Amino acid sequence: MHIMGELALIFGICLVGEGVAALLPVAFPASVISMILLMILLLAGVVKDRQIQTVSHFLVANMAFFFLPSFVGMIEHAELLKSQALPLVLIAVLTTPVVYLVTAWTVRLLMLGSKRRKEGGHA
Amino acid sequence: MLEAVLTSPFFGLGLSAAAWCAGVWVQKKTGWVLCNPLVVAGVLIIAFLSVFHIPLSQYNEGAEIIKMMLGPVTAVLALNIYHQRETLKEFFWPVLAGCLAGSLASLGSVLLLCRLFRLEDALTASLLPKSVTTAIALGIAESQGGIQGIAAVAVILAGLVGAVFAPMFAKWFRVHDPVAEGLAIGACSHALGTTKAMEIGEIQGAMSSIAICVCGIFTSLLALFL
Predict the structure, then answer these.
(1) Helices and strands (H and E) in chain A: how many
(2) How close A60 gets to chain B, by Cα (Å)?
(3) Same domain, A91 and A51
(4) Do B149 and A68 touch (CB under 8 A)?
(5) Total domain count for chain A?
(6) Straight-line distance from the first to the last Cα atom of chain A, in angstroms, rounded to the nearest whole number
(7) Predicted confidence band of residue A1 (pLDDT cuts 50, 70, 90)
(8) In this predicted model, what pLDDT tens digit does every residue of B58-113 receive, in sequence order?
(9) How far apart are CA B212 and CA B38, in angstroms?
(10) Does A100 map to a domain?
(11) Is residue A51 part of a domain?
(12) How close A1 comes to chain B (CA, Å)?
Protein backbone atom coordinates (compact mmCIF):
# COMPACT_ATOMS: atom_id res chain seq x y z
CA MET A 1 0.00 0.00 0.00
CA HIS A 2 1.11 3.58 -0.60
CA ILE A 3 2.80 4.98 2.50
CA MET A 4 0.25 7.80 2.72
CA GLY A 5 -2.50 5.20 2.68
CA GLU A 6 -0.78 3.39 5.57
CA LEU A 7 -0.52 6.64 7.50
CA ALA A 8 -4.17 7.47 6.82
CA LEU A 9 -5.21 4.07 8.14
CA ILE A 10 -3.08 4.28 11.32
CA PHE A 11 -3.98 7.91 12.04
CA GLY A 12 -7.64 7.05 11.42
CA ILE A 13 -7.50 4.24 13.99
CA CYS A 14 -5.84 6.59 16.52
CA LEU A 15 -8.54 9.18 15.85
CA VAL A 16 -11.28 6.64 16.58
CA GLY A 17 -9.31 5.65 19.73
CA GLU A 18 -9.32 9.28 20.90
CA GLY A 19 -13.04 9.51 20.20
CA VAL A 20 -13.84 6.36 22.16
CA ALA A 21 -11.62 7.53 25.06
CA ALA A 22 -13.52 10.83 25.18
CA LEU A 23 -16.83 8.95 25.35
CA LEU A 24 -15.71 6.70 28.22
CA PRO A 25 -16.76 7.86 31.70
CA VAL A 26 -13.31 6.89 33.10
CA ALA A 27 -9.76 8.07 32.28
CA PHE A 28 -8.47 5.30 30.01
CA PRO A 29 -5.47 5.90 27.71
CA ALA A 30 -6.63 6.52 24.13
CA SER A 31 -3.47 4.89 22.77
CA VAL A 32 -4.39 1.55 24.40
CA ILE A 33 -7.89 1.76 22.90
CA SER A 34 -6.30 2.29 19.48
CA MET A 35 -4.08 -0.74 20.05
CA ILE A 36 -7.04 -2.95 21.03
CA LEU A 37 -8.98 -1.61 18.04
CA LEU A 38 -6.16 -2.41 15.60
CA MET A 39 -5.75 -5.84 17.21
CA ILE A 40 -9.42 -6.61 16.60
CA LEU A 41 -9.27 -5.32 13.00
CA LEU A 42 -6.18 -7.46 12.30
CA LEU A 43 -7.57 -10.62 13.89
CA ALA A 44 -10.90 -10.16 12.10
CA GLY A 45 -9.01 -9.81 8.81
CA VAL A 46 -10.48 -6.35 8.10
CA VAL A 47 -6.97 -4.83 8.11
CA LYS A 48 -4.11 -6.89 6.65
CA ASP A 49 -0.69 -6.54 8.23
CA ARG A 50 0.86 -5.66 4.85
CA GLN A 51 -1.46 -2.64 4.67
CA ILE A 52 0.46 -1.04 7.53
CA GLN A 53 3.84 -2.75 7.21
CA THR A 54 6.12 0.10 6.10
CA VAL A 55 4.93 2.61 8.69
CA SER A 56 4.64 0.08 11.52
CA HIS A 57 8.12 -1.23 10.79
CA PHE A 58 9.49 2.30 10.99
CA LEU A 59 7.63 3.03 14.23
CA VAL A 60 8.59 -0.23 15.94
CA ALA A 61 12.24 -0.11 14.85
CA ASN A 62 12.60 3.41 16.27
CA MET A 63 10.07 3.09 19.08
CA ALA A 64 12.19 4.44 21.93
CA PHE A 65 12.92 7.63 19.95
CA PHE A 66 9.32 8.71 20.48
CA PHE A 67 9.80 8.50 24.28
CA LEU A 68 12.59 11.11 24.21
CA PRO A 69 10.37 14.19 24.79
CA SER A 70 8.73 12.57 27.84
CA PHE A 71 12.13 11.51 29.18
CA VAL A 72 13.62 14.99 28.73
CA GLY A 73 10.47 16.42 30.35
CA MET A 74 11.66 15.08 33.70
CA ILE A 75 13.96 18.12 34.13
CA GLU A 76 10.84 20.13 34.86
CA HIS A 77 10.56 18.02 38.02
CA ALA A 78 14.27 17.94 38.84
CA GLU A 79 13.76 19.06 42.47
CA LEU A 80 11.14 16.40 43.15
CA LEU A 81 13.32 13.75 41.48
CA LYS A 82 16.38 14.75 43.47
CA SER A 83 14.58 14.69 46.81
CA GLN A 84 12.91 11.33 46.13
CA ALA A 85 15.61 9.64 44.04
CA LEU A 86 16.33 6.82 46.49
CA PRO A 87 12.75 5.58 47.02
CA LEU A 88 12.05 5.95 43.26
CA VAL A 89 15.02 3.79 42.28
CA LEU A 90 14.38 1.28 45.08
CA ILE A 91 10.73 0.84 44.13
CA ALA A 92 11.42 0.46 40.41
CA VAL A 93 14.24 -2.03 41.01
CA LEU A 94 12.83 -4.10 43.90
CA THR A 95 9.36 -4.69 42.46
CA THR A 96 10.74 -6.09 39.19
CA PRO A 97 11.76 -9.54 40.55
CA VAL A 98 8.43 -9.70 42.42
CA VAL A 99 6.54 -9.36 39.12
CA TYR A 100 8.83 -11.97 37.52
CA LEU A 101 8.29 -14.44 40.36
CA VAL A 102 4.49 -14.07 40.50
CA THR A 103 4.05 -14.30 36.71
CA ALA A 104 6.33 -17.30 36.25
CA TRP A 105 4.87 -19.26 39.14
CA THR A 106 1.26 -18.56 38.16
CA VAL A 107 1.98 -19.95 34.69
CA ARG A 108 3.92 -22.88 36.12
CA LEU A 109 1.23 -23.91 38.58
CA LEU A 110 -1.50 -23.51 35.95
CA MET A 111 0.34 -25.70 33.44
CA LEU A 112 1.14 -28.26 36.14
CA GLY A 113 -2.55 -28.40 37.04
CA SER A 114 -3.76 -28.90 33.46
CA LYS A 115 -1.09 -31.54 32.87
CA ARG A 116 -2.26 -33.50 35.91
CA ARG A 117 -5.86 -33.27 34.80
CA LYS A 118 -4.92 -34.60 31.35
CA GLU A 119 -2.93 -37.46 32.83
CA GLY A 120 -5.80 -38.21 35.19
CA GLY A 121 -8.17 -38.41 32.22
CA HIS A 122 -6.01 -41.03 30.51
CA ALA A 123 -5.71 -43.26 33.57
CA MET B 1 17.95 35.60 14.18
CA LEU B 2 18.93 33.28 17.06
CA GLU B 3 15.51 33.86 18.60
CA ALA B 4 13.79 32.68 15.42
CA VAL B 5 16.02 29.62 15.22
CA LEU B 6 15.41 28.59 18.83
CA THR B 7 11.65 29.02 18.75
CA SER B 8 11.29 27.02 15.55
CA PRO B 9 9.93 23.46 15.96
CA PHE B 10 12.88 22.32 13.88
CA PHE B 11 15.12 23.01 16.88
CA GLY B 12 13.48 20.34 19.06
CA LEU B 13 13.03 17.95 16.14
CA GLY B 14 16.62 18.28 14.93
CA LEU B 15 18.15 18.11 18.39
CA SER B 16 16.13 14.96 19.20
CA ALA B 17 17.07 13.19 15.99
CA ALA B 18 20.76 14.10 16.32
CA ALA B 19 20.90 13.07 20.00
CA TRP B 20 19.16 9.81 19.10
CA CYS B 21 21.77 9.01 16.46
CA ALA B 22 24.50 9.68 19.04
CA GLY B 23 22.71 7.39 21.52
CA VAL B 24 22.48 4.55 19.00
CA TRP B 25 26.15 5.04 18.10
CA VAL B 26 27.26 4.88 21.75
CA GLN B 27 25.21 1.70 22.31
CA LYS B 28 26.82 0.07 19.26
CA LYS B 29 30.34 1.09 20.29
CA THR B 30 30.11 0.01 23.93
CA GLY B 31 27.53 -2.79 23.69
CA TRP B 32 26.47 -2.05 27.31
CA VAL B 33 22.82 -2.38 28.28
CA LEU B 34 23.23 0.67 30.51
CA CYS B 35 24.14 2.77 27.44
CA ASN B 36 20.54 2.57 26.34
CA PRO B 37 20.02 4.98 23.38
CA LEU B 38 17.10 6.66 25.13
CA VAL B 39 19.14 7.33 28.28
CA VAL B 40 22.19 8.57 26.35
CA ALA B 41 20.14 10.76 24.00
CA GLY B 42 18.02 12.11 26.87
CA VAL B 43 21.07 13.04 28.94
CA LEU B 44 22.68 14.71 25.89
CA ILE B 45 19.59 16.84 25.26
CA ILE B 46 19.25 17.82 28.92
CA ALA B 47 22.96 18.73 29.01
CA PHE B 48 22.64 20.76 25.78
CA LEU B 49 19.62 22.69 27.07
CA SER B 50 21.23 23.50 30.42
CA VAL B 51 24.65 24.44 29.02
CA PHE B 52 23.12 26.93 26.57
CA HIS B 53 20.38 28.03 29.03
CA ILE B 54 17.62 27.10 26.60
CA PRO B 55 14.23 26.74 28.33
CA LEU B 56 12.42 23.42 27.99
CA SER B 57 9.46 25.19 26.37
CA GLN B 58 11.58 25.97 23.28
CA TYR B 59 12.63 22.35 22.96
CA ASN B 60 8.99 21.34 23.38
CA GLU B 61 7.95 23.30 20.26
CA GLY B 62 9.40 20.44 18.23
CA ALA B 63 9.21 17.72 20.88
CA GLU B 64 5.41 17.98 20.96
CA ILE B 65 5.35 16.77 17.37
CA ILE B 66 7.38 13.68 18.31
CA LYS B 67 5.22 13.11 21.39
CA MET B 68 2.11 13.12 19.23
CA MET B 69 3.38 9.95 17.56
CA LEU B 70 3.08 7.99 20.83
CA GLY B 71 -0.48 7.12 19.84
CA PRO B 72 0.45 5.43 16.55
CA VAL B 73 3.51 3.80 18.19
CA THR B 74 1.28 2.18 20.81
CA ALA B 75 -1.38 1.22 18.26
CA VAL B 76 1.01 -0.77 16.07
CA LEU B 77 2.04 -2.85 19.13
CA ALA B 78 -1.11 -4.77 18.17
CA LEU B 79 1.09 -6.45 15.56
CA ASN B 80 2.93 -8.26 18.42
CA ILE B 81 -0.26 -10.14 19.19
CA TYR B 82 -1.21 -10.58 15.55
CA HIS B 83 2.13 -12.09 14.56
CA GLN B 84 2.07 -14.48 17.54
CA ARG B 85 -1.61 -15.40 17.25
CA GLU B 86 -0.93 -19.14 16.76
CA THR B 87 1.31 -19.28 19.85
CA LEU B 88 -1.24 -17.22 21.75
CA LYS B 89 -4.03 -19.63 20.84
CA GLU B 90 -1.99 -22.57 22.05
CA PHE B 91 -1.14 -20.99 25.43
CA PHE B 92 -4.23 -18.81 25.83
CA TRP B 93 -4.99 -19.48 29.52
CA PRO B 94 -1.39 -19.45 30.81
CA VAL B 95 -0.87 -16.11 29.02
CA LEU B 96 -4.05 -14.60 30.42
CA ALA B 97 -3.52 -15.87 33.98
CA GLY B 98 0.20 -15.10 34.04
CA CYS B 99 -0.21 -11.56 32.74
CA LEU B 100 -3.14 -10.84 35.06
CA ALA B 101 -1.17 -12.10 38.07
CA GLY B 102 1.91 -10.17 36.94
CA SER B 103 -0.02 -6.92 36.46
CA LEU B 104 -1.65 -7.31 39.88
CA ALA B 105 1.70 -8.08 41.51
CA SER B 106 3.26 -5.03 39.86
CA LEU B 107 0.52 -2.59 40.86
CA GLY B 108 0.23 -4.12 44.35
CA SER B 109 3.95 -4.11 45.14
CA VAL B 110 4.45 -0.57 43.81
CA LEU B 111 1.45 0.74 45.73
CA LEU B 112 2.62 -0.94 48.93
CA LEU B 113 6.15 0.45 48.70
CA CYS B 114 4.91 3.93 47.74
CA ARG B 115 2.74 3.96 50.86
CA LEU B 116 5.65 2.68 52.94
CA PHE B 117 7.89 5.51 51.70
CA ARG B 118 4.96 7.97 52.02
CA LEU B 119 5.39 9.22 48.45
CA GLU B 120 3.00 11.87 47.20
CA ASP B 121 0.16 10.87 44.88
CA ALA B 122 1.67 12.29 41.69
CA LEU B 123 4.80 10.19 42.24
CA THR B 124 2.82 7.06 43.01
CA ALA B 125 0.77 7.55 39.84
CA SER B 126 4.01 7.90 37.86
CA LEU B 127 5.46 4.69 39.30
CA LEU B 128 2.37 2.48 39.03
CA PRO B 129 2.77 1.56 35.34
CA LYS B 130 6.54 0.95 35.60
CA SER B 131 6.37 -2.67 34.41
CA VAL B 132 4.54 -2.00 31.14
CA THR B 133 6.05 -0.76 27.90
CA THR B 134 6.85 2.97 27.85
CA ALA B 135 4.25 3.87 25.23
CA ILE B 136 1.43 2.44 27.35
CA ALA B 137 2.98 3.51 30.68
CA LEU B 138 3.03 7.16 29.57
CA GLY B 139 -0.66 6.93 28.72
CA ILE B 140 -1.53 5.35 32.07
CA ALA B 141 0.63 7.82 34.04
CA GLU B 142 -1.08 10.73 32.29
CA SER B 143 -4.61 9.48 32.87
CA GLN B 144 -3.75 8.75 36.54
CA GLY B 145 -2.39 12.25 37.12
CA GLY B 146 1.26 11.20 37.16
CA ILE B 147 4.37 12.84 35.71
CA GLN B 148 5.38 11.39 32.34
CA GLY B 149 9.09 12.11 32.75
CA ILE B 150 9.25 10.19 36.02
CA ALA B 151 7.17 7.35 34.60
CA ALA B 152 9.63 7.06 31.70
CA VAL B 153 12.59 6.85 34.09
CA ALA B 154 10.88 4.17 36.24
CA VAL B 155 9.93 2.12 33.16
CA ILE B 156 13.49 2.22 31.85
CA LEU B 157 14.90 1.22 35.25
CA ALA B 158 12.57 -1.78 35.45
CA GLY B 159 13.44 -2.70 31.86
CA LEU B 160 17.18 -2.54 32.52
CA VAL B 161 16.87 -4.65 35.69
CA GLY B 162 14.88 -7.27 33.77
CA ALA B 163 17.20 -7.28 30.77
CA VAL B 164 20.31 -7.70 32.92
CA PHE B 165 18.97 -10.09 35.59
CA ALA B 166 16.50 -12.25 33.61
CA PRO B 167 18.87 -15.26 33.41
CA MET B 168 19.60 -14.97 37.16
CA PHE B 169 15.88 -14.65 38.03
CA ALA B 170 15.21 -17.92 36.17
CA LYS B 171 17.86 -19.67 38.28
CA TRP B 172 16.90 -18.12 41.64
CA PHE B 173 13.17 -18.72 41.19
CA ARG B 174 13.61 -22.17 39.57
CA VAL B 175 11.82 -21.32 36.34
CA HIS B 176 12.67 -23.87 33.65
CA ASP B 177 9.57 -23.72 31.47
CA PRO B 178 10.17 -21.47 28.40
CA VAL B 179 6.54 -20.24 28.34
CA ALA B 180 6.64 -19.21 32.00
CA GLU B 181 10.07 -17.64 31.59
CA GLY B 182 9.10 -15.59 28.51
CA LEU B 183 5.86 -14.32 30.03
CA ALA B 184 7.63 -13.38 33.26
CA ILE B 185 10.32 -11.42 31.42
CA GLY B 186 7.75 -9.53 29.34
CA ALA B 187 5.54 -8.86 32.37
CA CYS B 188 8.31 -7.38 34.52
CA SER B 189 10.50 -5.62 31.97
CA HIS B 190 8.53 -5.07 28.72
CA ALA B 191 10.41 -4.32 25.46
CA LEU B 192 13.87 -4.02 27.03
CA GLY B 193 13.49 -7.44 28.64
CA THR B 194 12.06 -8.89 25.41
CA THR B 195 15.34 -8.21 23.63
CA LYS B 196 17.02 -10.43 26.23
CA ALA B 197 14.21 -13.02 26.04
CA MET B 198 14.78 -13.31 22.28
CA GLU B 199 18.44 -14.09 22.96
CA ILE B 200 17.48 -16.79 25.47
CA GLY B 201 15.14 -18.59 23.09
CA GLU B 202 12.45 -18.36 20.42
CA ILE B 203 9.51 -19.31 22.67
CA GLN B 204 10.77 -16.98 25.41
CA GLY B 205 10.94 -14.09 22.90
CA ALA B 206 7.47 -14.78 21.49
CA MET B 207 5.92 -15.05 24.96
CA SER B 208 7.65 -11.92 26.15
CA SER B 209 6.34 -9.83 23.24
CA ILE B 210 2.82 -11.17 23.80
CA ALA B 211 3.12 -10.26 27.50
CA ILE B 212 3.98 -6.64 26.58
CA CYS B 213 0.54 -6.14 25.00
CA VAL B 214 -1.53 -8.24 27.37
CA CYS B 215 0.05 -6.74 30.52
CA GLY B 216 -0.37 -3.28 29.00
CA ILE B 217 -4.09 -3.85 28.59
CA PHE B 218 -4.53 -5.46 32.03
CA THR B 219 -2.55 -2.74 33.79
CA SER B 220 -4.53 0.08 32.13
CA LEU B 221 -7.77 -1.69 33.11
CA LEU B 222 -6.67 -2.41 36.70
CA ALA B 223 -5.41 1.17 37.12
CA LEU B 224 -9.03 2.31 36.69
CA PHE B 225 -9.85 0.79 40.08
CA LEU B 226 -7.10 2.65 41.94
Answers:
(1) 6, 0
(2) 7
(3) no
(4) no
(5) 2
(6) 55
(7) low
(8) 999 999 999 999 999 999 999 989 999 999 999 999 999 999 999 999 999 999 99
(9) 19
(10) yes
(11) yes
(12) 16
